[in-house]
Amino acid sequence: MRDQTRLRQPLSLVIGLLAIGVVAWLAACRTGSEAPTPSRVAPGDTDGVIAARGLTPDDVYAAVKTYMPTGRKDDYVMFASGGHSGQVFVIGVPSMRLLKEIGVFTPEPWQGWGYSNETRAVLDGGKVRGKSINWGDTHHPALSETAGDYDGRFLFINDKAQSRVAVIDLRDFETKQILNNPLATSDHGGTMVTPDTEWVIEGGQYAAPLGTAYASIEDYDAEYRGLVTFWKFDRGAGRIDPARSFAIELPPYWQDLCDAGKLVSDGWVFCNSFNTERATGGIEDDNPPFEAGASQRDMDYMHVIDLKKAAQLVTDGKAESIEGFQVLSLEVLNENGVLYFLPEPKSPHGVDMTPDGRYMVVSGKLDPHVTVYDFEKVKTAIAAKTFTGKDDYGVPIIDFDAVLEAQVEVGLGPLHTQFDNQGYAYTSLFLDSAVARWSLGGASGELNPEPDWTLVQKTPVHYNVGHLVAAEGDTVSPDGEYLVALNKWSIDRFLTVGPLHPQNFQLLDIGGSGETMKLLYDMPIGNGEPHYVQMIKADKLNVWEVYPEVGWDPIHQKKSENAVALGEEKIVRDGNNVEIFMTAIRSHFNPERVKIKKGDHVVWHITNVENAKDATHGFALPAYDINLSLEPGEATTLEFDADTDGVFTYYCSEFCSALHLEMAGYFLVQP
Ligand code: K7E
Ligand code: CUA
Q1: Which residues sit with their C-beta closer than 6 Å to ligand 2?
Q2: Distance from the CA of 613 to the center of ligand 2, in angstroms?
Q3: Strand, helix or coil for residue 64
Q4: Dist. CA 565 → ligand 2 center (Å)
Q5: Residue where one domain finishes, among candidates 513, 540, 567
Q6: Based on the domain organization, do 625 and 569 belong to the same domain?
Q7: Range 104-121 average pLDDT
Q8: For a tag site, which of 83, 328, 342, 443 has the least CB within 10 Å?
Q9: Within a domain: residue 547?
Q10: Is the whole-model pTM more than 0.85?
Q11: 3-class secondary-structure state, position 532
Q12: What mean pLDDT is predicted for residues 190-204?
């Protein structure tokens, strides 16, 4: 009943009514009287709905807790990786309303993402070996941080499929930069940021020769390499600076997720790895399959990286250049004590720092425990050289027993861990389909009343949970309150939509430390496979409702040189070059007729000269595969060769006004 107590003040009336409803329903059950079917419940009859649907008090609590009346805004915003869509989803919490899909690695027609010169140039930043790639496998969004706390300014995300990273400006929720890592073919363990967002971390994945080189798989040990990349973020420019970025060469293990140290561990980075067996597959040649070959050893290695020292070595000119990118070789790392290995149990997946930066929590996919390491002990072990030897590539291996703090048995298939403000950790259990809440001990355990490092509770989720997120749950000051389990399977939760089932985001109430976690909401995600999500307090975001000035270039966040003012519309021909200066305003384009000749090169500038909120116009030129979104004030340019003659129309593709259908023009291309 604690939950109702917390709600009583703001919602006492509603709760009172609902409580009466529940009592009435219970009474109705006892007397065996028949509940009306939902269709016969009169509008406004809350008790009738409760009775007809057979809602329990927990159901009613969940409904009230997540309901946002029209016009009421959510407390938190989640940024979810869009999986194979290559995009980012923006979701309000606790209502779980989908607010936006941000175009990132994939063209997105509604936003005109990838159709204008400006946005095409951003997408082209992600070309791989000269080729445009029109999908992504986004995994880990990372909000920018100041002093280890989300600051609401930028979002980063990786594309595992191609080893790419993107920068999104949270003033307008648009992607500003995409970079392809020239050294790697895939990444997984990105993106994560250091506490002041000086570095954006991109972990590796499948080992391969660095850069574009070819090497036989028989030469795996000698020629294949792992990698972790540190992208230098320039906050003022709002861009990553590739020239000041660098990577470190690693043994050909499969590097996985990373986390940045914070507070006492600031300046260090911790990355998991698996396949330290260096299995190379070949099931067809009677080799063990990867799934067996890559999980033979009891221990893989956490990579403990002294990032401050590594950055200094780069400044000191110790990096070599591969594909024009700065790389610190294994030799340099070993000579200078930049890299250490820390044994970690079977097939580790997530590594997560506790909010105080003191402990690293590791989940082994094939181990029912989470393993907790004390960073202070790691530092001591490194200083005292408490090593058990070196790996085949000369990297010192820290003595596991010297730095182990605790192992907590949480259940089967632990993957990822987040934290709350009450001294608890939450670990997703893929095989158990559950979330485990366990108490932090040691120096981190001051907030909770439990004995050190203990499993407190488990709650089932539906089903096969991958990541989970708690509100600001990977920062120095988590909020608690809400947790979302990102479930890969939904099986029986929703109406069937064919053999490809939605995935399921499940919202859990984790407010109230001693209380049972309560399931609040199921949100089907009809676009897989979203991996990770970060959740920020909505009031930390400072988002523009319209662009600051009419004629705005959103990519460069300043007034565009190509902005067209009202009254300055024109068409300028110079030989075969035709330049069109157009405005859009409710409800017409100006000009409305563009006459050119086949073979002309067309440069088309369009400015939406409005500044009213939400007065967006579209610009569709279907014959040339173009659709733009012109938000109020936005100026954009598109460019193409008029290689098809005929009579075409362009039209506004946003329903902007009563005369929206009239907002059109003729594009006449003479043969
Ligand atoms: Cu566990 Cu790609 Cu972060 Cu998915 S990863 S679950
Ligand atoms: Cu402008 Cu429709």
Answers
A1: 587, 617, 652, 654-656, 660, 663
A2: 14
A3: helix
A4: 18
A5: 540
A6: yes
A7: 97
A8: 443
A9: no
A10: yes
A11: coil
A12: 96
